[in-house]
Amino acid sequence: MATSRSLAPCHRPATTAATLLLFLALLGTSLRVSRACVDPSTYPYKKIEYRNPAERGRLYILYDINGPDGCLNDFKTARDICAKDKLELAPQDDSKSLAAVRQLVTSRRVTSWLDGKTSEPGLCHLMSQEGFVHEQGCNQPVRFVCRAVAAPASAPPSPPSQLSQACVDPFTYAYKKIEYRNPAERGRLYILYDINGPDGCLNDFKTAKDICAKHKLELAPQDDSKSLAAVRQLVTSRRVTSWLDGKTSEPGLCHLMSQEGFVHEQGCNQPVRFVCREAAA
């Protein structure tokens, strides 16, 4: 007579294994972005080369992100990576260097660290996507340009002019005014004062605030979440920066929203776009 045996269900191990694999996949997805920057010195940057004809083909390399999970770095890390690759961070006090970096960043609408002394500790030089040089906080995640190390040029460099002749009177300049009605504030009007052509007029913080007041508006503040959302709507889609009003951690610094929508404190005397809004009733 045949003896019957009770067989343990065989599907549980498979189910357990599938659950484990799913958990690992989700964990890997959640860590995917952070892993890219765990070691910025070994990250596979997209290196875009430019041979500067003004320096007999001197090599400049933009260290760009390589895919959506890109690795951007603070100033010190960028400088260290250049040194590790036996290069130097392109400086801001050399007109030929500035021209080369401008060639690399403006066509791609990105920003880049620049080496050189600044007006005060805690600030570093950064070239904007429009090719202007600013001083701002050194701990931001930014692209950078390294160049081949060489003897300095015999002729002294001539610093570039940051403001064009169109800015002789910023109060009468014909800005390109881009309006946005904020639905979170019942259609409150926000206006981005943008450049109007290649000889655009960009302004320091005080001038921007004064222009808003002249038009019976106020510079959009950074301590109001609805204001931040409206300014972010205007600047991120256009990959530009904008001044923001509000108290800062120390004198000489002002709030600025980056093209990615982050708020930074940096020097107030830079040429930047700005957003005014209707004053509250």
Q: Can you give keywords for this protein?
A:
single chain; 281 residues; alpha+beta; 5 helices; disordered N terminus; signal; C-type lectin domain-containing protein; CTDL_fold
Written description of the protein model:
With 281 residues, this protein is α+β, with helices and mostly antiparallel strands. Helices cover 25% and strands 25% of the residues. It has helices spanning 11-36, 75-84, 95-106, 205-214, 225-236, and strands spanning 46-52, 58-64, 87-89, 112-114, 123-127, 133-137, 144-148, 176-182, 188-194, 217-219, 242-244, 253-257, 263-267, 274-278. The strands form 4 sheets. It has a 4-stranded antiparallel beta sheet, with helices on both faces. It has a 4-stranded antiparallel beta sheet with strand order 8-9-14-10, with helices on both faces. Strands 4-5-6 form a 3-stranded antiparallel beta sheet. It is elongated. The protein starts with 10 loop residues before the first helix and ends with a strand. Residues 1-13, 21-35 and 152-165 have low confidence and may be disordered.
Number of strands: 14
Gross morphology is elongated
Distance between the termini: 96 Å
Tell me the radius of gyration.
25 Å
Mean pLDDT: 82
What are the secondary-structure elements, in order, as H or E? HEEHEHEEEEEEHEHEEEE
User: How many strands, which pairing sense, and closed or not: the largest β-sheet?
Assistant: 4 strands, antiparallel
Share of residues in helices: 10-25%
Oligomer: single chain
From the helix content, strand content and strand pairing, which structural class follows?
Answer: alpha+beta
Beta-strand percent range: 15-25%
Physical arrangement of strands within the biggest beta sheet: 1-2-7-3
Helical segment tally? 5
Question: Segments where pLDDT lies below 50 for 5+ residues?
Answer: 1-13, 21-35, 152-165
